[in-house]
Amino acid sequence: xxxxxxxxxxxxxxxxxxxxxxxxxxxxxxxxxxxxxxxxxxxxxxxxxxxxxxxxxxxxxxxxxxxxxxxxxxxxxxxxxxxxxxxxxxxxxxxxxxxxxxxxxxxxxxxxxxxxxxxxxxxxxxxx
Length: 128
Fold this sequence. Notes:
Blueprint: E1 4-11, E2 18-26, E3 31-35, E4 47-50, E5 56-60, E6 72-77, E7 82-87, H1 90-127
């Protein structure tokens, strides 16, 4: 599963302003990371979302008061944080939603696999 990087716009939590963000999706580490600029990548993230904590991921189809004409939005939420990203290209938005969903499933599978392997390794050490 490949990592994904790209530029999106993010709505401020009060929804009165927005700003550009450089977004990085790492399915192996199970992280969705937002940076203020590409120059901040990879050492100074603005925030990090754990993929296994995502409870909602969707393209926003019903119009909201803060929507701008010609822009397409998606929302990603954990119990602690909700982020709304947007772009003027619907295919880009659909791509990000699809990749985040696939990365979340991949990370869950990988985590299950590594947990099982670790448990087997621990049992072998205990048996010796």
